[in-house]
Amino acid sequence: MTIDPRTLVDAAIDAMARAYAPYSHFHVGAALLDTDGRIWQGCNIENASYPATMCAERSALSAAVSAGVRRFAAIAIVGGPEGILGGICTPCGICRQALSEFCAPDMPVYLGHADGITTLTLGELLPYSFTLTDKEAKS
Ligand code: THU
Fold first, then answer.
1. How far is the CA of 44 from the centre of ligand 1 (A)?
2. Ligand 1 test: best mutation among 13, 18, 23, 28, most atoms within 8 Å of CB?
3. Cβ-based neighbour number of residue 102 at 10 Å
4. Could you identify the atom of ligand 1 that is nearest to the CA of residue 23?
């Protein structure tokens, strides 16, 4: 399953519009493409108890996995203060680890920014990751 990166980044921008970020004012959106071509969106959801905050990437992953979807082809991520895009918004360490549970190291990660899209792979973002060796446990 492939997609025009611009389409997936636009879906992430759409999701970012629903960010709940009254504390940091940093809005993030993610769009996760599954292997059937469906797009799962997520935004950051902050909390007065700051550590309870959910990042956009894990919001998207939670939506998909909760619907029974576990195979993914790409993810797009955008973010910026009050939703204004500047530079790239790279996923935090926890989100990289969470994605690595379900996504292959060669999965593209499209990082939308003010001047276009930077493409990396999950493996580049999280080398030598800790994952289950028994992949059958996930299927
Ligand atoms: N955030 C994400 O949504 N994803 C990341 O990978 C990095 C950080 C959110 C969490 C918080 O609501 C805001 O960005 C500032 O840290």
1. 6
2. 28
3. 18
4. 12
Question: What CATH fold (topology level) applies to the domain 5-138?
Answer: Cytidine Deaminase; domain 2 (3.40.140)
Q: How many angstroms from the chain centroid is the CA of residue 94? A: 11
Q: For the chain, 139 residues long, give each residue's pLDDT as a single digit of tens.
A: 899 999 999 999 999 999 999 999 999 999 999 999 999 999 999 999 999 999 999 999 999 999 999 999 999 999 999 999 999 999 999 999 999 999 999 999 999 999 999 999 999 999 999 987 645 555 5
| The pTM of the whole model exceeds 0.90 | yes
Q: Phi and psi for 77 in degrees, rounded to 5?
A: -135, 135
